[in-house]
Amino acid sequence: MAILRTRVQLAAITLLTLLALCMSWPAHAARLKDLADVEGVRGNQLFGFGVVVGLNGTGDGNGAQFTQKSVANMLEKLGIRLDPKDIKVKNIAAVMVTSTLPAFVRPGTKIDVTLSSLGDAKSLQGGTLLFTTLKGADGNVYAVAQGAVSVGGFAVEGGGDAAQKNHPTVGLIAQGATVERGIPFDLFQSKRIRIVLREPDFTTVTRAVAGINTFLGRPVAAALDAASVEVPLVEELGHDPIGLVAKLENISIDQDVGARVVVNERTGTIIMGESVSIGRVALAHGNLNIAIRSETQVSQPNALGEGQTQVVTNSDVAVAEENRRLGVIGGHVTLGEIVNALNAVGATPRDLISIFQALKKAGALQAELVIM
Q1: Which of 131, 276, 337, 350 could hold 367 in an S-S bridge, CB 3.0 to 4.6 Å?
Q2: Any idea which of 13-22, 51-60, 198-207 has the lowest mean pLDDT?
Q3: What angle do CA 334, 336, 341 make, to 5 degrees?
């Protein structure tokens, strides 16, 4: 028990030390392209229904009627008419094929596709996707997919034993789809460039406007809201809009990050931003240690007795709570001082989660608490 407790405390100290080191690193400005996107430059989702053949008995069972019917329809187009009930699909699997059509893509471009089993197939390993059309949200066909499926896992059975690694019912075909139609879009038709921040913030968008106007040498850019900056393509700015975007996205901007504490209760991970502060509070923390020991004993009757064998379990439960005095922490301190104070309390990552939740409830944590 003592060794385990020591290891937990060492892990907590290591985590808090790393947080303190992160706090001491100087903040650097980021490029605008790393903080924002140009409005209109986005991908579009594609999907389609396909059939994978060539499986080694790991396909859909006979209960997947949609697989039987889809194969029957496909064969009928090839001049072969069969009753769907007569088709065995253990080597065939119905899949949903998904992909993303990148912005500015042209016909003939190759894109990756992902296949996900739709029925009760056990594995897509070794299969081949037959010709599948991929449609967009408007119902139009934008790409066609076909090829051998690559699965990053396996599933085997034999003699009543089974083994599985990763997800063999999801596969990938690298460069497996060919774009047949691009999405027509004139990025500069409105004679303006709109830049949208990925994390809306009034301070950051104001700095972005100032940086763009300083680069252009005149007050042209304007903020529309906490996330959008608009640059009109006036006079010589409209001569080379592509080059203008390339120059604007390399402008350095100091991103303003709000005070935030992110905790993951499943893994015990805690991340704190450098702007986090704690109001002056009194904190008491005690570790509760519970040890349970069980011993099983067998009571047997005499050889000529008529009694029955009895199993008796003796349990011993010991509970001890470590005494801790109230300690005053907080009062507009830095992240390093917060780390040192919590480290002095002897809190583990699991304990820190409870401490931060209590501080938030008390109104002393001057930051947003995000629990994952």
Answers
A1: 276
A2: 13-22
A3: 95
Mean pLDDT of all residues in 38-61: 90
Quote the distance between the C-alpha of residue 355 and its chain's center: 26
Give the pLDDT confidence score for residue 2 in this predicted structure: 44
Q: Identify the pLDDT of residue 307.
A: 64
The whole-number pLDDT of residue 284 equals 67
Question: Based on C-alpha coordinates, what's the Rg of the chain?
Answer: 32
Q: What would the pLDDT profile of 123-166 be if each residue is shown by its tens digit?
A: 898 899 999 999 999 999 999 999 999 987 666 655 555 666 66
Taking the domains of the chain in order of start, what are their residue ranges?
A: 2-26+260-300+308-371, 31-40+187-253, 44-179
Torsion of CA 250, 40, 103, 170, to 10 degrees: 100
Is residue 145 within 8 A of residue 173, CB to CB? The reply is: yes
End-to-end CA distance of the chain: 29
The DSSP call for residue 331 is S
Exposed / middle / buried, residue 94 (Cβ in 10 Å: 0-12, 13-18, 19+): buried
What count of other Cβ atoms lies within 10 Å of the Cβ of residue 173? Answer: 21
The C-alpha atoms of residue 279 and residue 83 are separated, in whole angstroms, by 75
DSSP state of 174: E
Q: Which pair of tokens denotes residue 192?
A: 């303006």
Summarize pLDDT for 168-198 with one digit per residue, the tens.
Answer: 889 999 999 999 998 888 888 889 999 999 9
- Sign of the Cα pseudo-torsion (162, 163, 167, 173, in order): negative
